[in-house]
Amino acid sequence: MLPRPGRRRPAPARTGRAVTARLRCTVESMNYSACELAVGDSFDLGDRGVELPEGRGFCMFAISAVASALAGRAGPEPLSAWLAREPLVACPDPPENLVMRVRALPEKGR
After folding, report:
1. Per residue in 43-67, pLDDT tens?
2. With helix as H, strand as E and coil as C, how does 3-40 read?
3. Do 96 and 29 form a contact (C-beta atoms < 8 A)?
4. Does residue 8 sit in helix, strand or coil?
5. pTM above 0.85?
6. What DSSP element (H or E) covers 60?
7. Which of 11, 48, 85, 98 could lock 91 by a disulfide, CB 3.0 to 4.6 Å apart?
8. Does residue 91 contact residue 65 with C-beta atoms inside 8 Å?
């Protein structure tokens, strides 16, 4: 049902799933990489967005897979508990079989 002109819809409920931690996503294993990645390559993710190592790139599909895993976590488990298990996330390209480990980083200044 479309809202009538001049009427505002109520804002959607917030889920409380915002990423407040700094995360490092590191390539653990792969068959090969079409994006020229290697085991040990990484990117950081936090409240400022995606941070790549100086002069390096990273596969946008792999970054998207991590973002989707963070957003799609099921249940009431807090982010810190999920990250304590250092979860593995796979890039969506099956032949590459690129797997990344997600770890929480200490807060800056600690």
Report:
1. 999 888 899 988 889 999 999 999 9
2. CCCCCCCCCCCCCCCCCCCEEEEEEEECCCCCCCCCCC
3. no
4. coil
5. no
6. helix 60-71
7. 98
8. yes
